[in-house]
Target: P-loop containing nucleoside triphosphate hydrolase protein
Amino acid sequence: MPRMSKGLPIKQKIPGVNKIVLVSSAKGGVGKSTVSINVALSLQKLGKKVGILDVDLFGPSIPKLLNLSGEPRISENGKLLPLSNYGLESMSMGYLIKPENPVVWRGLMVMKALQQLLFEVQWSNLDYLVVDMPPGTGDTQLTISQQLKVNGAIIVTTPQDIALIDAVKGIAMFNKVDIPLLGLVQNMSHYICPNCHHESHIFGSKGAEREAKNHDLEILGSIPLNEEICTQSDAGKPVVVSSPDSPISDPYVDIARKVLNQLE
Ligand SMILES: Nc1ncnc2c1ncn2[C@@H]1O[C@H](COP(=O)(O)OP(=O)(O)OP(=O)(O)O)[C@@H](O)[C@H]1O
Model:
């Protein structure tokens, strides 16, 4: 546990990591993990050394998205060694527990596991660590926001009003703990018919733009609802790897470029 100053933990860096970017959503299932992995792979495509840390202790998604499993090896100095695929280093609670064993833990055990994931992983001098946050604004999010020196946070939302109301809660939390907001990503924002190429805004079109404007935030990108994004993710090969030159990867690379513009 880091030292306390005036009752608050001192914000720390993660050993072996230069910059930390959080990917967050206040509501579950909006596509946060899919955005995290594809943006991490895009940062890598743009020449950075990147890792991804999955701190969704109760529903880790990164092992499946990277088609990785098995326990991490332990280094000589007792640290967890990341598992890698597609050139990306990764660490997740999913490697430490068997998928068939649900996590039923007391609060203290959760906090201990979180400390291990945050500070006991031997990353190899990364330019960027993308942190896939759990949905919501609970204990894990608060601990991370208070203990880590975070360079910026991305909020993923869908255009439905209900997700937007939740997104506002996430914005408020990051403002409270002085984490710079890089912007909003609007996921499943529209659907392009594969036959006639007609673009429909199934869930409405103006919500995220309105919220972004109200909170003086940039919209980093709008990602369509697309079958390939879903099937490739399920197959453990995110689109930035499986279809690097297809227009379906472009929004993720654009988001990564905007992140670099803000943080470099
Ligand atoms: N743009 C998209 N088009 C189609 N399917 C998508 C898109 N983005 C995400 N999905 C699919 O939606 C489902 C949920 O995505 P994901 O797991 O990334 O969400 P999440 O917000 O991280 O969820 P959780 O809150 O459970 O962690 C997955 O099956 C994923 O493949």
